[in-house]
Amino acid sequence: MAWQQLHIQCEKSQAELAETLMLEAEALSISLDDAGDQPLFEPLPGESPLWDDVIITALFDTSVNLEDLSQDVAQQVIATRVWQTKVDDKDWEREWMKNYHPIECANNLWIVPKWLTPPNPTAVNIMMDPGLAFGTGYHATTRLCIDWLTEQDLTDKIVIDYGCGSGILGIVALKLGAKAVYAVDIDPQAVLATHQNAERNQVHTQLQAFLPQEFEQFCQDNAILPVDMITANILAKPLMSLAPYFATLLKPNGQIVLAGLIENQVNDVKTTYQQFFEMDGDFTFSSQEDKHWHRLSGKKSI
Questions:
Q1: Parallel, antiparallel, or unpaired for β 53-60 and 29-34?
Q2: Domains in the chain and their CATH numbers?
């Protein structure tokens, strides 16, 4: 069976109206894409940030008259353009899987989708489910942290992965020799994903995942602090507010790595952390695609 799509490019203020019209016309699915090149950051649970200029794509079966619907949309939505396309029927699950492939990180470490065979069986291979939570190795901020981890001596280290997402950074740390990882995230789905990916990589006996309040209670009930290392791939504002708390979690000379930063946020975050940590210079990728993402690292001041 073939399908048809209606595309609407408009400002974000018009997006809700356009979506409503598509749903009323019995759209089978609706997707929103960036019409320009505007980065969005990982949202907090319940947040839905949107680009300033949006392309809304609605999928319909062939019984819907898109010519009439296009005219109706043009009358009600202030749109830059409206157009139609045809879509051949496909095995959509396999199409989705095609978008993911093994990624070679630094120092012979690979991120491999769970349904694929590792291209290098002798490498450190992390098997991940790209559909569960943020942080599966395909975003520059995650890779920045992974590359940093591969350069550290993690033997028998105790690590806190704060803002764990899929759990990938904690899993990498364990595969590189860490003794234990305590993973924390405000999203219950991330806690679940972390548990599942830890089992998939046979490190579940060394990794525990918590919501923040659960972790604070766990720390009160168990003598795990201070730890050797913290990884935190989140956002600039939460990172800045967490700096004093992170300082209480790390032992003197304990290491910290921060990511999720763009260029104009680096100095503010670095200044905040310099009250508690000896911070190194920031690092970013040289590629044009990823150069706006930055990483900071440092050590807890004695």
A1: antiparallel
A2: 3-89 (3.30.70.260), 142-300 (3.40.50.150)
> What's the pTM?
0.72
- Cis ω on the peptide bond leading into residue 226 (within 30° of 0)? yes
Structure token digits, residue 13:
């203020």
Pairwise CA distance, residues 299 & 176, whole Å: 20
CA angle 264, 130, 44 (to 5 degrees): 45
Q: Which of 98, 24, 122 is nearest to 68 (CA)?
A: 24
Decide: residue 169, CB within 10 A, 0-12 exposed, 13-18 middle, 19+ buried.
buried
User: pLDDT tens string for the chain (302 positions)?
Assistant: 578 999 999 999 999 999 989 988 989 989 999 988 777 665 565 666 788 999 999 999 888 999 999 999 989 999 999 999 988 766 555 555 666 788 888 899 999 988 889 999 999 999 988 665 555 666 888 999 999 999 999 999 999 999 999 999 999 999 999 999 999 999 998 999 999 999 999 999 999 999 999 999 999 999 999 999 999 999 899 999 999 999 999 999 999 999 989 888 999 999 999 999 999 877 776 555 567 889 999 999 87
* CA–CA separation, 300 and 34 (whole Å): 40
- In terms of phi and psi (left: phi > 0; alpha: psi -120 to 50; beta: otherwise), the region of 56 is beta
Q: Are strands 124-128 and 109-113 parallel, antiparallel or unpaired?
A: parallel
How far is Cα 234 from Cα 41, in angstroms, rounded to an integer?
A: 9
Phi, psi angles (nearest 5°) of residue 67: -65, -45
